[in-house]
Amino acid sequence: MTEAAIKGNGKKRTIFICQGTGCVSGKSLEITEALKKSVAEQGISGVNVDFTGCHGFCEQGPVAIVEPEGIFYTHVTVADMPEIVESHFKNGKPVERLFYKDPASGQAIPYHKDIKFYSMQQRIILRNCGRINPERIEDYLATGGYEALKKVLKEMTPKQVIEELKRSGLRGRGGAGFSTGQKWEFCHNAPGDQKYMICNADEGDPGAFMDRSTMEGDPLTVIEGMTIAAYAIGASEGYIYIRAEYPLAVKRVRLALKLAEEKGFLGNKILGSNFSFRIHVKEGAGAFVCGEETALMASIEGKRGMPRSRPPFPATSGLWGKPTTINNVKSLATVPVIIARGADWYASTGTEKSKGTCVFALTGKIANCGLVEVPMGIQLRKIIMEIGGGIPGGKKFKAVQTGGPSGGCLPENYLDQPVDYESLTAAGSMMGSGGMVVMDEETCMVDVARYFLSFTQAESCGKCVPCRVGTKQMLDVLIRICGGEGRPEDITLLQEMGNNIKAGSLCALGQTAPNPVLTTLRYFRDEYEAHINEKRCPAMVCTALVRYYILPDKCMACGICARNCPVEAITGAKRMVHVIDQEKCVKCGTCLEVCPEKFSAITKVSGKELDVPREPTPIRVEKPKVQAVT
Amino acid sequence: MITLAKDTLTKADVQDSLKDIFSHYEGEKHELIPILQETQEKFRYLPAAAMREISRFLGVPEANIYGVSTFYAQFKLTPLGKKVVRVCRGTACHVRGSGKVLAEMEKQLGIKAGETTDDMEYTLETVACIGACALAPTMTIDSETFGKMTTKKVAEVLGDRSSNKG
Ligand SMILES: Cc1cc2nc3c(=O)[nH]c(=O)nc-3n(C[C@H](O)[C@H](O)[C@H](O)COP(=O)(O)O)c2cc1C
Predict the structure, then answer these.
(1) B95 and B60, same structural domain?
(2) CA of A99: how far to CAs of A33, A74, A96, A111, in Å?
(3) Ligand 1 pocket: which residues have CB below 6 Å?
(4) How far apart, in Å, do the first and last CA atoms of chain B sit?
(5) Cα dihedral angle (A470, A472, A474, A478), rounded to 10 degrees?
(6) Ligand 1: nearest atom to the Cα of A294
(7) From the CA of B11, how many Å to the nearest CA of chain A?
(8) Domain A545-618 top-level CATH class
């Protein structure tokens, strides 16, 4: 036991297991228990077992980090725990097989700080995520938590807070990118004795999970930011609107509110000042449009979450008709840092018009999936190829989709563009909430456009006609194209409808819904043309346009495909080349998956038919094998 | 083939539970959604009898309650199966093949998304995004999340479940 202490340089060590949603689904709760048990069983002292929220590197999960040395373990399991305890904590030998492996070189990297995924990031919003126990307020305080609120309440007037925010250049991270300081100023100046502060934690964009991770990993940052905002605008009541699909985030936020209240950071006369503020949690009920600010407020009021036209803006007439400010989770999580370190410090990062950092949820066909926080103005290529580690499996990059269902798909030649509000919008996409989905050559861009539109169409609240009817019409055309029934005039039709829906819709849902279609038409028009004119899906994704064949010169009549075919479309016999009945085939691809690799007898084609026998024929005669089968 | 499970609960069946739920609300209109959420958690759907009681408690017309409960995807007006399977249809999941996972799930359960098996064991749904995108494609069974799904793993996660039935 003393030995362990010596090998650990006599310092007390803590191993933090990640307990974000991703790692929990990889059984990290059980892993934490197993680790505690191993530590106790092996009689190790000086080792503390603790947990954190999301590290953002969910792809490698469940992950664990040993502090202070910063050894980072990936893909840990319950079974690995005794070995970590014995080898690392007892014998001072970290378990190398659990280190992160660089996807390019295959090299094992022991330290968190040396992993490119992390070392190239600049974490402001996510600064505490994965570093502190989100269920203990002491941990938050130890990182400087609530220093900003203290400073605000002691030294600053609301006007000064607003000026500081304006000077920092912070723009809303919820999508529209409006100046946070200005937004607060409008609400501060609006007449009214009752005002509300709302945190938008609805995060409805499919493919984005940074708000979830922030709330799971560092809920008090968001609460502190919100409290400062409330002070600046003069609100005494606040709401956090979280989607119900995030049960862990809801739990951690509720707990954090309780802890903050106990310590006097929320409630009556906060920290002895004259400022009082209370926060309520409202859970969303599964409607994407409720992320839109006016719909969100209707939902808090207990109504159907339908947007209304603005003006009046929430700053003058918001929740229950009172002046209201609504900010995104990330915007609020940035506020304490701006106050603590100053507007100038914050504004020194980023570009002229887009200051600070932005968080992307990097997913799709990418080696390092996860959350990345980078300075505004960084090139897309850096995010995707360096931090993200490029496309796995040697596949070629095709497109990157930013901004969720309201954003667009950008091709390779945009990879060197800087990432900021203006550049992305100019390219036809948008910053949105920060979803970044990478697509490779096996992704069909028409199918992707259809996918996004089917999402927005289903989520359209139905209030205004262009969005309700228009998106449905566009979707029908896209379904037709993917189904091989596209007509030459469809491309212009989609463009016209898209532009009309953008111009005519009531809220940003409809105003942006056509973006994925319009950008794919702009950058990947050839794929639409192939679908329409040649009935060919270049990525071979659209099932109506692909066919599967068994190659007569390769089939060895093993029969595995026939046995696995769900619709009995494959016929054959012993020593007979098997044949797929194209009429019966449902194109599920099972045969291709199960055909043994050594035969690779099944091929998938699009836009053409192969001339193979229609009936089983005898298999090719094998040349006598030299090696004996062992 | 699939008959929708019937909403058979009566006022007598829901009264006591609702009394409990109402006890920590003021009876204000804006409490409608949280009350519906709690009611659904209790009965696993929103019985018509319960909606009538809620209408009385809040002084909100039944038609409005119906309007709200059909607007939000979370609310169900017919009973759910014992286990709710949700296949994520988020973007990251889509490009990593969640369509196939859903098709396999539909095949194995013998129902389409949105339906409940005849024996009331499983309800199959899709969900827009559960925010575990790095593990795409994902799905959940009740509150448990399963990541990096494949068609092969579908039987596994269901098998896992049916063995601890009881
Ligand atoms: C359809 C739709 C969905 C939205 N979803 C979200 C969301 O999930 N989270 C968010 O913060 N903002 C969302 N917004 C943007 C909000 O309306 C609002 O601009 C934002 O919360 C303001 O916060 P910010 O100034 O801090 O960015 C959405 C907007 C629309 C039109």
Answers:
(1) no
(2) 21, 6, 5, 8
(3) A 172-176, 178, 183, 200, 202-204, 289, 291-293, 326-328, 331, 433, 507-509
(4) 26
(5) 180
(6) 17
(7) 24
(8) alpha beta
| Rounded Cα distance, B116 and B78, in Å | 10
Residues of B in contact with A205 (CB under 8 A): 129
Q: How many CB atoms lie within 10 A of CB B37?
A: 20
Task: Give the residue-averaged pLDDT of A262-276.
Answer: 97
Q: Which residues contact B138 (CB under 8 A, 6 or more apart)?
A: A25, B88, B90, B93, B98, B130, B132, B145, B146, B147, B148, B149
- Reported as a pLDDT band with limits 50, 70 and 90, residue B166 is very low
A323-A329-A335 Cα angle (round to 5): 80
Q: What are phi and psi of A349, to 5 degrees?
A: -100, 145
Q: Which of A301, A303, A437 sits opposite B92 (nearest CB)?
A: A437
Q: Report the alpha-carbon distance of residue A151 to residue A232 in Å, rounded.
A: 13
Residue among A204, A282, A363 minimizing CB distance to B134: A363
Q: Where are the domains of chain A?
A: 3-114, 137-347, 357-443, 446-533, 545-618
What letter would DSSP give residue A105?
Answer: T
**B155 and B89 housed in the same domain:** yes
Q: Is the peptide bond before A68 cis (omega within 30 degrees of 0)?
A: yes
Report whether pLDDT(B1) > 60.
Answer: no
Using CA coordinates, name the residue in chain A closest to B73: A286
Query: CATH number of the domain at A357-443, please?
Result: 3.10.20.600
Q: Which amino acid is at A189?
A: N
Q: Give residue A200's identity as a one-letter amino acid code.
A: N
**CB-based contact A153:A230 (threshold 8 Å):** no
Do residues A607 and A599 lie in contact, with contact meaning Cβ atoms separated by under 8 Å? no
CATH, domain range A3-114: 3.40.30.10
Q: Is A295 helix (H, G, I), strand (E, B) or coil?
A: helix
Judge whether B63 lies within some domain: yes
A400 close to A437: Cβ distance less than 8 angstroms: yes
Nearest C-alpha neighbor of B21 from the set B43, B2, B45, B39? B39
Provide the pLDDT for residue B75.
94
The DSSP result for A357-423, as a single string, is EEEEEEEES-SS-EEEEEETT-BHHIIIIIIS---GGGPPEEEEEESGGGSEEEEGGGTTSB-SHHH
Provide the number of structural domains found in chain B: 2
Provide the phi-psi class of A540: left if phi over 0, else alpha when psi is between -120 and 50, else beta.
left
**Yes or no: domain A446-533 corresponds to CATH 1.10.10.60:** no
Say if residue B122 is in the same domain as residue B146: yes
3-state helix, strand and coil shares in percent for chain A, rounded to the nearest 5? 45, 15, 40
A524 touches B at CB < 8 Å? no
CB pair distance less than 8 Å for A303 and B31 = no
Judgement on whether residues B47 and B90 belong to the same structural domain of the protein: no
pLDDT in tens, A339-349: 999 999 999 99
Q: Please judge whether A207 and B90 are an interchain contact, meaning their C-beta atoms are less than 8 angstroms apart.
A: yes
Report the pLDDT value the prediction gives residue A4, as an integer from 0 to 100: 40
Q: What is the pLDDT of residues B83-96, one digit of tens each?
A: 999 999 888 898 88
The parent domain of residue B137 ranges over 83-164
Give chain B positions within 8 Å (CB) of A439: 95
pTM, rounded to two decimals: 0.92
Tokens of A214: 């922030």
What contacts A402, CB < 8 A, 6 or more positions away?
Answer: A360, A408, A410, A424, A429, A430, A431, A432, A434, A435, A436
- Rg of chain A in Å (alpha carbons): 28
Mutate to test the pocket of ligand 1, among A165, A186, A319, A328 (most ligand atoms within 8 A of CB): A328
- For residues A486 and A480, the answer to whether their CB atoms sit within 8 Å is yes
